[in-house]
Write a structure and sequence with these properties.
Layout: H1 2-16, H2 25-40, H3 47-71, H4 76-90, H5 93-108, H6 112-119, H7 132-176, H8 188-211, H9 215-225, H10 234-245, E1 248-250, E2 253-255, E3 258-260, E4 264-266, H11 273-306
Antiparallel strand pairs: 1-4, 2-3
Helix pairs in contact: 1-4, 1-11, 2-3, 2-7, 3-7, 4-7, 5-6, 5-7, 5-11, 7-8, 7-10, 7-11, 8-9, 8-10, 9-10
Length: 307
């Protein structure tokens, strides 16, 4: 049943894309995040008080919805459609394509200014300083984890409560998980919980990228380059993805006017516009691999119970 629900959720995401902003649950959740932050965050407080406030905010925002999803297990007639909708809202596979395709089109038409503007919508670094192709590919590879494989993993592990927990925790990390003066302590809990939830999915994603590309190069880059990355989960995913595509990504990047000495990732040529399409194909093939493995395992379990 889980695999069937996954297939339906993925099909809805690919067919419909993200819901309109006015109807998207995460937009309403974002407004709730703003209110909780305004209530609890006091920058003048000491580090421990800010950290505790951030933990309390995380609990207030995530725990009730996760518990509500768990309570729906008592009513299968509600739980099954709610599971499909929950997974659909959590996925962003089509969104990866919708954000990347305009960048590709602008680059192929020679309009670098438009390509830079489009790429700035999906990357966090300073748009004026970034390498458009490399930044877009890095975003695709890393968001493959956040927008696709992390949600699928937790749906398999814990059903609707798992995917609700993962998506809300991931959203809070995107809002609070920055090492800026404002969020360094308040967002510590959100960042660490997101790291924990993504630890296994990130390595499964990295392995999927490696199996579907230049496997030896990907595994070597993962082993040698990922430890030098700031993110414990983004490092394996991007290093493996860059190696699988045989591209050179990463390197120094400018964030909010500050140059960060990030490590180089992968091995090969500098990326071109067509390599963005290759990155999308890699994520697409990885999703097909996950769904295929799920179908095989489900078929085997069904056969073994009736044998």
């Amino acid at each position: 049943m889980t695999v069937l629900l996954m297939l339906v959720g993925c099909a809805l995401d690919w067919r419909l894309g993200e819901p309109a902003l006015r109807w998207h649950p995460l937009v309403a959740f974002g407004r709730l995040v703003d209110r909780v932050e305004a209530l609890l965050l006091r920058p003048a407080q000491g580090p421990w008080r800010q950290t505790l406030a951030g933990f309390l905010g995380w609990l207030l925002l995530v725990a009730p919805w996760t518990l509500l999803a768990a309570l729906l297990l008592r009513w299968p007639a509600l739980y099954l459609p709610a599971s499909v909708l929950g997974l659909y809202w959590a996925l962003g596979f089509r969104s990866l394509h919708e954000h990347a395709q305009p960048v590709i089109a602008a680059l192929k038409s020679g309009n670098e200014t438009m390509a830079r503007d489009r790429a700035s919508l999906i990357v966090s670094r300073d748009a004026s300083q970034m390498n458009i192709e490399a930044s877009t590919i890095e975003s695709i590879l890393e968001n493959g984890l956040d927008a696709v494989f992390g949600a699928l993993f937790w749906f398999v592990v814990a059903g609707l409560p798992g995917v609700v927990l993962y998506r809300l925790a991931n959203t809070l990390d995107a809002r609070w998980g920055y090492r800026t003066p404002r969020y360094r302590y308040f967002g510590w809990c959100a960042a660490r919980i997101d790291d924990l939830l993504n630890w296994v999915p990130a390595r499964l994603t990295a392995l999927s990228y490696a199996l579907l590309g230049s496997t030896g190069t990907a595994l070597r880059c993962w082993r040698q380059q990922a430890p030098g990355c700031e993110s414990p989960n983004g490092g394996p995913v991007m290093a493996s993805g860059a190696g699988a595509l045989e591209l050179r990504l990463g390197g120094p990047a400018c964030y909010h006017g500050i140059l960060k000495a990030k490590p180089w990732l992968g091995n090969g040529a500098a990326p071109q516009a067509e390599d963005i399409e290759r990155a999308l194909k890699l994520v697409r093939n990885a999703l097909l691999l996950w769904l295929s493995v799920g179908l095989v395992l489900a078929g085997y379990m069904t056969w073994s119970t009736h044998a």
